[in-house]
């Protein structure tokens, strides 16, 4: 899992009429090729009378899986422009399908490229973009005499306590960005003179919506 990357906040859709052709683009976050194929199938089923369904998707922190299909449009005028638009936005783990109802007026290669690329841009704007941050869970076993000092330190560093268990000692669970895990662990150990040593747990993704 990458320390952080950008993906869609949720599924979204946008529609535009260009020279009597209707372009409807749907986008969605995905985590597997099965999810991508299921999403594409749902969009096709929702528009059975459309002229074209142009699907693209990318998977992985490094986009090691990339798929694009022109679905009958002239080669290079539909799927590739959509895929390139998602790449230029810096998005990952995303699928898009642009459905076209042909209106009788040909757009030409340049017009098609602009239409399909623009359809993705509009749909992504409707869905929203989030930053996915890899968060490292940590468990802290805290003696009561250290509790107030430690919780004050956590508050000062804007670290939220996600769980707590008060027994003979207090067990606290926190989550911090993976890039900050080492300095946070060192800071807690220094603050408590070695009485509290964070135990590292799994990495979990957290979506942070970006301002539009």
- Average per-residue pLDDT, rounded, comes to 93
Query: So what's the CATH class of the largest domain?
Result: Alpha Beta
Radius of gyration: 24 Å
Topology pattern, helix = H, strand = E: EEEHEEHEHEHEEHE
Helix fraction bin: 25-40%
What low-confidence regions span 5 or more consecutive residues with pLDDT below 50?
A: none
Number of strands: 10
Roughly what fraction of the amino acids lie in strands?
A: 35-45%
* CATH fold assignment of the largest domain: Ribosomal Protein S5, domain 2
**Number of helices, where a helix is a run of at least 4 consecutive DSSP H or I residues:** 5
Number of domains: 2
CATH architecture of the largest domain: 2-Layer Sandwich
Any idea what the CATH superfamily of the largest domain is called?
Answer: Impact, N-terminal domain
How does the helix and strand content classify structurally?
A: alpha+beta
Structure, described:
- The protein is an alpha+beta fold.
- The chain folds into 2 domains: about 5-125, Ribosomal Protein S5, domain 2; about 135-205, 2-Layer Sandwich (Alpha-Beta Plaits).
- The chain is built from 5 helices and 10 strands, in the order E-E-E-H-E-E-H-E-H-E-H-E-E-H-E.
- The chain has helices at about 35-45, 80-90, 110-125, 145-155, 180-190, and strands spanning about 5-10, 10-20, 20-30, 50-60, 65-70, 95-100, 130-140, 160-165, 170-175, 200-210.
- The strands form 2 sheets. Strands 1, 7, 8, 9 and 10 form a 5-stranded antiparallel β-sheet that branches.
- A hairpin with a 3-residue loop joins strand 8 (about 160-165) and strand 9.
- The longest helix is centred in the middle third of the chain and has 20 residues, at about 110-125.
- The chain is rod-shaped and about 80 Å long.
């Amino acid at each position: 899992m990458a320390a952080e990357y950008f993906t869609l906040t949720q599924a979204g859709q946008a529609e535009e009429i260009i020279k009597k052709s209707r372009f409807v683009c749907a986008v969605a976050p995905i985590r597997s090729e099965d999810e991508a194929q299921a999403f594409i199938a749902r969009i096709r089923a929702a528009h059975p009378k459309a002229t074209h369904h142009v699907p693209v998707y990318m998977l992985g922190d490094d986009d090691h899986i990339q798929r694009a299909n022109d679905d009958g449009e002239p080669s290079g005028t539909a799927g590739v422009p959509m895929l390139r638009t998602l790449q230029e936005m810096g998005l990952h783990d995303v699928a898009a399908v642009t459905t076209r109802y042909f209106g009788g007026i040909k757009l030409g290669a340049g017009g098609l490229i602009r239409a399909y690329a623009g359809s993705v841009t509009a749909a992504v704007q409707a869905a929203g973009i989030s930053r996915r941050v890899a968060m490292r869970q940590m468990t802290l076993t805290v003696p009561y005499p250290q509790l107030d000092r430690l919780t004050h330190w956590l508050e000062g560093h804007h670290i939220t306590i996600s769980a707590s268990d008060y027994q003979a000692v207090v067990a606290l669970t926190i989550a911090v960005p993976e890039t900050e895990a080492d300095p946070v662990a060192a800071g807690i150990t220094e603050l408590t003179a070695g009485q509290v040593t964070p135990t590292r747990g799994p990495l979990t993704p957290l979506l942070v919506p970006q301002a539009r």
